[in-house]
Amino acid sequence: MRQKTTALAATDDVGGARQPLLSIRNLTKHFSGGREKLFGKKRVVRAVDGVSFDIAKGETLGVVGESGCGKSTTARLLMHLMPLDGGEMIYDGNKVGPDLSLRELRRRMQMVFQDSYASLNPRLTIEDSIAFGPKVHGVDDGAARTLARDLLVKVGLDANRFANRYPHELSGGQRQRVNIARALALSPRLVILDEAVSALDKSVEAQVLNLLNDLKREFGLTYLFISHDLNVVRYISDRVLVMYLGEVVEIGPVEELWNSPRHPYTTALFAAMPTLDPDRRTTEAPIAGDPPNPINPPSGCRFHTRCPFAEPVCSATTPALYAVGPAHQAACHMAIPGSGHSKAPKEAMAA
């Protein structure tokens, strides 16, 4: 029988500040798309296809891209809410599986979902919902309930008023604060926020964003922040990862990416942002057409069917992420020296 404890201690930093908190290599998830004909070949939806990135300790990594590009699927794969088809995860130097169990991973990583109501059990009070996780991990009932009330205060809710309420008695913003408190109940170091503020009105959204920043400073948290709202991503993120059709096309520091994007899709994505400045009004669509079908994605660079700079090399060869600056990488033939694209830098001559 597991020994009951009165609190969950924060997990130790293993590798120091320079070691990434989470390293993802070749993360892959394909879904069955049925058959073309009754006895035809099975079709495969390439939802996440060889995604690799690192999350540094204490940073906020924003993830952006069109609907269906694989953002939320990536988040669910990181939490192992669905099985991986390939790839590996290394959490602070420990490989998930051989060195770190799924139970211990979820103790160190938590997730806040978009739908604040569906995320909570309607038959549990707010206090019971927050206390549930710690009790599963061995904290005794009294200590877990005390922790739940303390966390309600941390997220700006009066414990005496809200602890014994049910989810349907709270507003959307209040429920999302409860979900944040529940995520913090296990003392995680990494919190994944999947469209966590997109369902809130703007005034409440701003309050929750400021709350997230305050909690990050207080608890030393690291965030993976997924959103469609590019202004929100720019406000809260240190670095931004751009996805297109299941692949990473660019990743880099937030201001560098905004001021000097190196992938045409990133440029088009930022150009689509609404603005109140009449001098920056969008007069034509940044890119044409719809994203290709992920069941049969284009060969080479998957963006070449919509790219105004596409050349034969773009459909013939898949570009790898290439360093275009400090901590800035882009998967575009125009950024890779000697790639064969007319706009690519010339290869440096060997001395």
UniProtKB/TrEMBL annotation:
Name this polypeptide is given: Glutathione import ATP-binding protein GsiA
Keyword terms, alphabetized: ATP-binding, Cell inner membrane, Cell membrane, Hydrolase, Membrane, Nucleotide-binding, Repeat, Translocase, Transport
PROSITE patterns, per database record: ABC_TRANSPORTER_1, ABC_TRANSPORTER_2
SUPFAM superfamilies given in the database record: P-loop containing nucleoside triphosphate hydrolases (SSF52540)
SMART domains: AAA (SM00382)
E.C. no: 7.4.2.10
Membrane topology designation: Peripheral membrane protein
Subcellular location: Cell inner membrane
Domain of life: Bacteria
PANTHER family with a match to the protein in the record: GLUTATHIONE IMPORT ATP-BINDING PROTEIN GSIA, TRANSPORT ATP-BINDING PROTEIN
Gene Ontology MF, one: ATP hydrolysis activity
Pfam family, one: ABC_tran
NCBIfam families attached to this UniProt entry: oligo_HPY (TIGR01727)
A cellular-component GO term for this protein: plasma membrane
Enzyme class: translocase
Organism: Aurantimonas endophytica
